[in-house]
Specification:
15-stranded parallel sheet; 12-stranded antiparallel β-barrel; elongated; disordered N terminus
Length: 603
């Protein structure tokens, strides 16, 4: 018989007779159809032998082996020989086939298989786990189990035009000690599909032809950095290699050769959302300190805003004395809030907390105009769900505002802005987990206009009751400088970006004012209403692995919801203390709860 000494450069010669009789020394030769072989020591199919064979108590008659199923244990290996025009249509293993001293499975001399399916274990310690020799192709090989070889042997080996049309692997194909997961010479694999869950240990040795290699990977952590997604291939490279990643919707990734890395886009949406809520709390500095301080009549001065300070009213609710008009107020305010956003298809959940304080001054510039200004500082902290990372910022902000009244009708305009020094962290899932850090600046500007009218509901329960419908529109433009991370093997670079928000509110504000506790003025405030937001921004862009990366800022473009608030004021003489709380609930699972306190002094 001829040998294969010249067919496989770099490989030791394989003699058909040596290989065959080596197997014959350890395997019982069996002829016939087999189904459900359980607990037998060895199994071989020799199509040149027309006689039936008995193994132990089991008898296999002569004939064609069409379907083979093993759900038990075959410890001596499996061999087919010279089947030619009688291929095995279906070879299925859900149990164990082990080559104790040789190949676990050997397809020898024109022994094809149409469909080979393994969800069990096929292993060998002294030779290739699956060895195919001399025109013994497999049309489709599906592996979701384990095919392994040790001691420098191959998990799957091919010689003499023995290829595979389609190999689908979602299990493990492993060779250790210097062998290869897949090794073949002078043959063709038309398509290799490495499906999610696929593990290839030992790489691929190719001196034949691979038409297309498709690699499918599922990534659960949107911040990832993964190398060796495509197995190492020595020798001839595939005609086409495709890498397909399945990632969470909040992941944007790039691939460069055998390397892929992804970014959680939720962090960028969280930062933009934090600016919206912090700028709202800063803007309300102008709403809660007598900005809508009507000048002139008792009703206007008393009821212009549910949170207005009323210390300049006479105790009996009469109009203020002429000498009081033009007085100034100096105030100190502190605020804090917590915003939680539920997870969506495009974003993980996150929590943003913020707090700050400000000092301001305001005065009556005329009988119907009141204006003021303030400056302050604050901090924000974003924490992303899933331990993906977060960000924090130190803020400086300032604002100015003015109110014009016409009897009980008023209009207010305000302009606020701020600058932030930001630090972001990104926890990366990699072979060795990493944390990337970025430092960058940001700023925002927010104009606002409100109109309203105070309606006096008269005396109720010993005090004055009023209701004030208010319509307001606010615009926020936020800018974030570009940056490059540090601390990771492959750092992300982001370009400058911006976002815009237009917000509308329609609220009813109720106020009850009375005199109590030895000439102390007491005011109780409540509000309820609706809110709408239209959010937009340019696409985020940057580079990762040196490749361009771009995506839209996550978050709902348009949201609606409701707002509500409670508060009180206590004043005596020139001193006023105010405390209030506000709740905002937006569609998409966005909820914000904030509180503030104000102490003011007239002078």
């Amino acid at each position: 018989m001829q040998t294969s000494a010249s067919c496989c450069p770099g490989r030791p010669a394989h003699s058909r007779s040596r290989t065959f009789f080596k197997a014959a020394a350890t395997l019982a030769f069996i002829v016939g159809g087999v189904s459900g072989t359980v607990g037998i020591q060895a199994l071989a199919i020799d199509y040149t032998n027309p006689l039936g064979t008995t193994v132990g108590s089991q008898f296999y008659p002569g004939g064609t082996l069409t379907n083979f199923t093993n759900n038990g244990t075959v410890t001596g290996g499996f061999l087919t020989y010279n089947s030619h025009s009688n291929p095995i249509s279906s070879f299925t293993n859900t149990g164990l086939i082990q080559g104790a001293s040789g190949y676990a499975i050997q397809l020898f001399d024109h022994s094809p298989i149409i469909t080979f399916t393994n969800s069990g274990t096929i292993s060998s310690t002294n030779d290739d786990a699956i060895f195919r020799f001399d025109h013994s192709p497999i049309t489709t090989l599906n592996n979701s189990g384990t095919i392994s070889a040790t001691g420098g042997h191959n998990a799957i080996g091919f010689f003499y035009n023995s290829g595979i049309t389609t190999l689908n692997n979602s299990g493990t194909i492993s060779a250790t000690g210097g062998g290869h997961a897949i090794s073949f010479f002078d043959g063709t694999i038309t398509t290799i599909n490495l499906l999610p869950g696929s593990i290839i240990v030992g790489g691929i040795e190719n001196f034949g032809t691979i038409g297309t290699l498709n690699v499918y990977k599922t990534v659960t952590n949107p911040n990832f950095d993964s190398v060796s997604l495509i197995p190492t291939i020595t020798g001839n490279q595939p005609g086409t290699t495709n890498l397909y990643l399945t990632t969470p919707d909040n992941c944007k990734y790039v691939t460069v050769g055998n390397h892929a890395a992804g970014v959680d886009t939720s962090a960028f949406g969280a930062n933009t959302n934090a600016i919206r809520h912090v700028s709202n709390s800063v803007g309300r500095l102008a709403n809660t300190n007598g900005v809508i301080q009507s000048i002139g009549t008792k009703i206007a001065k008393h009821n212009a805003d549910p949170y207005v300070m009323t210390s300049d009213l006479c105790a009996d609710g009469a109009p203020a004395q002429p000498g009081q008009i033009g007085n100034s107020d100096f105030w100190i305010r502190g605020f804090m809030g917590r915003n939680r956003v539920d997870a969506t298809a495009s974003s993980t959940d996150y929590i943003n907390t913020y707090s700050g304080g400000a000092v301001g001054i305001e005065r009556d510039w005329s009988e119907d105009v009141r204006a003021g200004a303030f400056i302050g500082a604050g901090i924000t902290d974003n924490s992303l769900g899933g331990a993906l990372g977060g960000s924090e910022a130190d803020l400086l902000f300032a604002g100015a505002y003015a109110t014009k009244t016409w009897g009980t009708l008023f209009a207010k305009v305000g302009l606020t802005g701020g600058r932030g020094n930001n630090t972001g962290t990104r926890n990366i899932a990699a072979a060795t987990p990493e944390t990337a850090t970025a430092d960058y600046n940001s700023w925002y500007v927010s104009p606002e206009v409100s109109v309203g009218k105070v309606y006096d509901l008269g005396q109720r329960l010993g005090g004055t009751l009023s209701v004030t419908p208010v319509l307001s529109v606010r615009y926020v433009y936020a800018h974030q400088d570009g940056y490059t991370e540090t601390g990771a093997t492959n750092n992300l670079t982001m370009n400058n970006s911006h976002s815009t928000t237009i917000e509308e509110r329609a609220e009813l504000k109720f106020s009850y004012a009375t005199k109590a506790f030895n000439d102390y003025g007491v005011k109780i405030n409540a509000s309820v209403g609706g809110i709408g937001q239209q959010n937009s921004g340019g696409a985020m862009s940057g580079t990762l692995l040196g490749a361009p990366l771009s995506f839209a800022t996550p978050g709902d473009d348009n949201t609606t919801g409701f707002v509500g608030g409670l508060g009180f004021e206590i004043n005596r003489g020139k001193y006023t203390f105010t405390a209030s709380g506000d709740y905002v609930r937006l569609s998409g699972g966005n909820a914000d709860l904030s509180a503030n306190v104000v102490f003011s002094v007239k002078f």
